[in-house]
Amino acid sequence: TTTSALATTTIDGSCGVFTTQTGTLTSPNYPSNYPFNMICIWTIHVTGGSVRIQFIDFDVQFKTGCMFDNVRVYDGDVQIARLCGTMTDINPGPYISTGSVARVRLFSDNNKSHKGYSLTWATI
Q1: Which pairs with CB-CB distance under 8 Å and at least 24 residues apart come from 98-102?
Q2: Distance between the two ends of the chain, CA-based, in angstroms?
Q3: Is residue 94 reached through a cis peptide bond, with omega within 30 degrees of 0 on the bond before it?
Q4: How far apart are CA 88 and CA 56, in angstroms?
Q5: I need a surface site. Which of 41, 99, 107, 117 has the fewest CB within 10 A?
Q6: What is the predicted pLDDT for the residue at 8?
Q7: pLDDT tens-place string over residues 70-115
Q8: In 3D, which of 114, 97, 98 has the Cα closest to residue 35?
Q9: What is the rounded CA–CA span in Å between residue 5 and residue 108?
Q10: Per-residue pLDDT, 30
């Protein structure tokens, strides 16, 4: 499946599109460890406003520059954050889109796996 310029590989149907005005989403298998070797993109599309994303839990393999496992937050198709580590290593947000679409992308390699993330979103 492809979404705009971002290729999406889903793991057991865990990734997809949300069209509700508010919600909570988690990485695949959360709070257990996320799978190895995956790219999972969640698309959040709201009506009548922008998307506000706030991480409430975060644990992704840390490496300077987030060169291995990482979470990227997109305002539409424009990357606005690249995150790895724990809640004490990252800016948990809020991340606010300029339009009605935001995306959250988790990339994992074949080395280490952590529990991932939980986040909330709302329309503002």
Answers
A1: 98/50, 99/50, 99/75, 100/45, 100/46, 100/47, 100/48, 100/49, 100/50, 100/51, 101/43, 101/44, 101/45, 101/46, 101/51, 101/76, 102/43, 102/44, 102/51, 102/53, 102/73, 102/74, 102/75, 102/76
A2: 29
A3: yes
A4: 12
A5: 99
A6: 40
A7: 999 999 999 999 999 999 999 999 999 999 999 999 999 999 999 9
A8: 114
A9: 19
A10: 96
Domain with 93 in it = 2-123
> Is 78 buried (19+), middle (13-18) or exposed (0-12) by CB count in 10 A?
exposed
CATH classification of the domain holding 38: 2.60.120.290
Burial tier of 71 (Cβ tally within 10 Å: 0-12, 13-18, 19+): buried
CB-CB contact of 72 with 81 (8 Å): yes
pTM: 0.87
Q: How far is CA 84 from the centre of its chain?
A: 11
- Digit-coded pLDDT (tens) for 34-48: 999 999 999 999 999
Residue that wins the pLDDT comparison between 11 and 103: 103
Q: Which two tokens stand for residue 34?
A: 């996320």
Task: Judge whether 100 and 49 are in contact, CB under 8 Å.
Answer: yes
